Amino acid sequence: MKIGVIGTGNMGRILTEAFIDGGTVLPEDLMITNRTLAKALPLQEVYSGLNVGVDAKAVAEHSDLIFICVKPHDVYHVISSIQNQLTHDKCVVSITSPISIKQLESIVPCSAARAIPSITNRALAGVSLLSYGDRCNEKWKVNLKALFASISAPVEIEENITRVASDIVSCGPAFYSYLTQRFITAAVNETEIDQETATKLAGEMLIGLGELLRKGYYTLPTLQEKVCVKGGITGEGIKVLESELGDVFEQVFKATHAKFADDLDLMKKQYTF
Q1: From which residue to which does any coiled coil extend (predicted)?
Q2: Annotated binding site for NADP(+): which residue ranges?
């Protein structure tokens, strides 16, 4: 199977690196391109044998499975430019949430799917979100699930939870990175610990927390119970969090969904759905 990646920005690059490092895709079976071609060439220096196409048409011609990794408002134009290369047996995959799988399927003559990755996939970890078009060949469903299983835990989702699932899986690492950075900064400001030590401790704590959850030793509630001993120091900290956080996370989801609604309105101008 030949795989193509059109767009080597943050997520296009991460997918390229993860697919190869995951061991299921050989560099020579992968072709990438970017509107500014110079941004794709550095990957070829890292992975010997990786192909760089001169444009999107070259990638689509060469590939059986084609990932469109560009901004939402550019997806329609990219797909329009490669229509002649999209034979019935191929599959086009969008990685952006504002474009529904029905909208994508309405403009391609082949199988269509959506795969929303996470930056955690670069470490061959985390979750990827999969959705398939009504005409998507069963072969491609199997192939996509296997491909993403090599770099993540793939989860098939319905259209109605696309945004919130993306908030948790794809935006979540940025949200929690921000919270952790604030946690570190507060420690440095309020105590004698230095930035480097606080950052190392916080990073290793997060890795350990992830392992506890991954291995199933605790759930989030039972973990809190184990650490938060009645009358102890952790409990005092939890009281502050309960008091100060309020509905901050509810507001986060309201904000992301409001922006998503704006994006959906823009996409309706390009698609028939």
Answers
A1: none
A2: 6-11
